[in-house]
Amino acid sequence: MGLFDKLKKSLSKTRDSIGGAVDNVIRAFTGIDDDLFDELEEALILADVGVNTSTEVVEKLRSAAKEKKIADKDALRAELREILMETMKKCGDTAISNTSPTVILMIGVNGVGKTTTVGKLANYFTKQNKSVLIAAADTFRAAAVEQLATWAERADVGIIKQQEGSDPAAVVFDAANAARARGTDVLICDTAGRLHNKKNLMDELAKIKKIVERELPNAAKEVLLVLDATTGQNAVIQAQEFAKATDITGIVLTKLDGTAKGGIVIAIANEHNIPVKLVGVGEGIDDLCEFDAETFVDGILG
Amino acid sequence: MAFESLADKLSQTFKKLRGKGKLNQNDVKEAMREVKLALLEADVNFKVVKQFVNTVTDRCIGEEVMESLTPGQMVVKIVNEEMCKLMGESESKLAISPKPPTVIMMVGLQGAGKTTTSAKLGGLLRKQGKRPLLCACDIYRPAAIKQLHVVGEQLNIPVFSIEGNNNPAQIAQSAVAQALKNGNDVVIVDTAGRLHIDEELMAELERIKEVVTPTEILLVVDAMTGQDAVNVAESFNKELDITGVVLTKLDGDTRGGAALSVRSVTGKPIKFCGMGEKLSDLEVFHPDRMASRILGMGDVLTLIEKAETAIDEKKAAELEKKLRNATFTFEDFLDQMEQMKNMGPISSIVGMIPGVDAKALAGAQIDEKKMARTEAIIKSMTKAERENREKLTPSRKDRIAKGSGTTLSDVNGLIKQFEQMQKMMKQFSGMSKAGKKKMGMKFGF
Predict the structure, then answer these.
(1) Average pLDDT in the B358-381 region?
(2) Where residue B68 sits, what CATH number does that domain have?
(3) Is B97 among the domain residues?
């Protein structure tokens, strides 16, 4: 199965839930009235788009409908698609850095899938014939280093690690130097999951970022926030807080193969202008897709 | 504002209500709109919110409220009561099988925190005098078995696993057999994370359930889960008939609306909550307290309980006397700090104090490093200096600064703070002779 099919398949579930709901709403109403807009808003909220953004989107839709004198449901639907697409697109480039050398820092709260994504991403780059090195900077969680080592083996890439409990910044320092010495194309750093309201842990992250800047000043930098698609409104705060500690360049949306709708990225795009770059759709090494706003929004609306 | 907590929102709404003598239908409607928005922003499922708001509105727009003297208070009371009802009215204990071993099965989505929670639960049960055995059935995620072994070792709890075996039901069955042989009275089965729509893996859970007949099947749910919490909980409950829920990562700033959703669709109690990264950070879930915390009344009960277990009774009595007489010294200050450290991270304690809202906390980050510095300064004082701050001459202060690796202004700052605290205490002791509050003291950091 090709990547595109996989994304489509996983998005079809999203479509079934969000799009299905939107469809049902539109089908259930013959004309366009206030109830229809209310129901559309509800459908968006149920997709985790959030109250603020849902209201905003529906308001936009309402005034567009008035202005353009939209009277039929299909046109309204096309208008909604347009608005959502615009929201996702205004955040800028969704492509991941393709220059050499590139350093990628994976960050996020606990349990979102950072380590798994590092493994998949290493594979993604080796497939493009790039040399990859990964740094095991999650020195906190039990057996995280072993977990990453297994992924390094699967993707057939090198790994820089120290023992559990060592200073993550030191691991990144070592890895940066190793990457420079080996002329590695892409260095991917896994970090420990941390809740964004723990000040000391966020400081640690800022320190890691600083070391990367200092040791590899000429490398392109990507800081990818990994978000679990099942997460609700808290993801907006996560994005905001992690962005404060490090400059996030993009989002990896994981676990989109479930029934979770991942609508929260629309809210994040709307409020914080952070683009989604990659999408995780399973536990296999190939289950990582490049994000495509059009496919995503089309997937949502069916 | 995105940062306002549910508690803030509701208290703002109710402030409006409190200001009025009598409520009319419009007021209730207005308040309920705010309640609805706040709950939605807290990730409570839309349908659950709708139902909740309807129930509360029905109860509010009645004579009971309209004719009562303080309608605002009445609404607060009703919202609180209904919230408690939804959350479950009392805390729910872990069921223990009359015929050991008690088997506890941990299930949930990927990354919810099953492995960590399994270990934490093992630690908690051992504290209660049980002899738990952890069983590693996550054969899919790389190093998941190793992870359980590591945390088991940290807690000194045995971990059962079979290298190379890829039949979780068999592993679980063997673990129970070993528990019987070795006299372990509790077996905690850690299963792999899976999607609730993955039929194959859901069937695997059913097979495990069949062979080990668990006393408890606990669904582990991330407190940050959004609207989908309803689907996840419903599916797991339908397939496995879960007995309870563990809510993890509640130490984040999520508003935890998933708790309400899960509870409402499954009807199963939330039994524990994960409150941090340490293996001791698992707490019994108190639904009523959670409800009142959501409603802005602060989690006073948990705070008091924490204080009671951590603070030495005798020392507390002594301290109280000193506070009354205002003979509190740096030595006592240090003591107090150490006892507070036993209570866990300060931020988690402060969050439980009513009236202290998240917004205020966001500006004033509680810096545990600063606390450590304070400790270093006091520890660099001689005993005599600690007892009597008059002794602190400039040259002594200089020595203390050097000794603690701080600056003179740090030392002066602390002394000034301390003086202010003493002044405050004098006022306090004059005010409330009757109050026997152990926690009546302000934290000076």
Answers:
(1) 69
(2) 1.20.120.140
(3) no
- Cα–Cα distance between B15 and B17 in angstroms, integer? 5
Q: Under an 8 A CB cutoff, do A140 and B277 touch?
A: yes
Task: Give φ, ψ of B363 to 5 degrees.
Answer: -70, -45
Q: What is the average pLDDT score of chain B? A: 80
* In-domain check, residue B153: yes
φ, ψ at B16 (rounded to 5°):
-60, -45
- Model confidence at A46: pLDDT above 50: yes
Interatomic CA distance for residues A208 and A157, integer angstroms: 22
The pLDDT value given to residue B12: 66
**Chain A closest CA to B82's CA: distance in Å?**
23
pTM of the full structure: 0.77
The burial class, CB within 10 Å (0-12 / 13-18 / 19+), for B104 is buried
Looking at the structure, do residues B284 and B320 belong to the same domain, yes or no?
Answer: no
Domain count, chain B: 3
Do B40 and A51 lie within an 8 Å CB cutoff? yes
Residue B322's Cβ-count burial label (10 Å; 0-12, 13-18, 19+) is middle
Residue-wise pLDDT tens digits, A182-216? 999 999 999 999 999 888 999 999 999 999 999 99
Element (H or E) spanning A288, and its range?
Answer: strand A288-290
The bridge status of strand A220-228 relative to strand A186-191 is unpaired
pLDDT exceeds cutoff 50 at B355:
no
The total number of residues shown for chain A amounts to 302
**Beta carbons within 10 angstroms of residue B357's beta carbon:** 17
Share of chain B above pLDDT 90, in %: 43
Tell me the nearest-neighbour CA distance from A220 into chain B, angstroms: 30
Q: What pLDDT, in 10s, does the model give residues B68-104?
A: 445 666 676 677 778 888 888 778 889 999 999 999 9
* Residue that terminates a domain, selected from B256, B280, B297: B297
A156, amino acid identity: D
Q: Helix B199-212 to helix B229-240 angle, to the nearest 10 degrees? A: 40
Contacts A–B by Cβ distance under 8 A: 145
> Which one of A111, A144, A264 has the shortest CB-CB distance to B113?
A111
Give pLDDT, residue B88: 81
SS (H, E, C) A177-201: HHHHHHCCCEEEEEECCCCCCCHHH
Q: How sure is the predictor about B435, in pLDDT bands with cuts at 50, 70 and 90?
A: very low
Q: How far apart are CA A31 and CA A19, in angstroms?
A: 19
Whether B439 maps to a domain, the answer reads no
Q: What pLDDT digit, counting tens, does each position of A48-97 carry?
A: 999 999 999 999 999 999 898 888 878 888 899 999 999 998 888 889 99
For chain A, helix (H) and strand (E) counts, in that order, are 12, 8
Is residue B11 assigned to a domain?
Answer: yes
Residue type, B312: D
One domain for residues B231 and B138: yes
**Ordered structural domains, chain A, with CATH:** 102-248 (3.40.50.300)
Q: How distant is the Cα of B156 from the closest Cα of chain A, in angstroms? A: 14
Verify that B145 and B79 share a domain, yes or no.
Answer: no
Crossing angle of helices B287-294 and B6-18, rounded to 10°: 60
Which residue range forms the structural domain that includes residue B350? 303-431
- Given the DSSP bridges, would you call strands A288-290 and A276-280 parallel, antiparallel or unpaired? antiparallel
**What mean pLDDT comes out for the span B266-290?**
88
pLDDT number for residue B19: 54
**Tokens found for residue A294:** 């059009």
Give the list of residues 6+ apart from residue A226 with CB closer than 8 angstroms, or none.
A106, A107, A108, A112, A113, A114, A117, A251, A252, A254
Q: Are residues B227 and B273 in the same domain?
A: yes
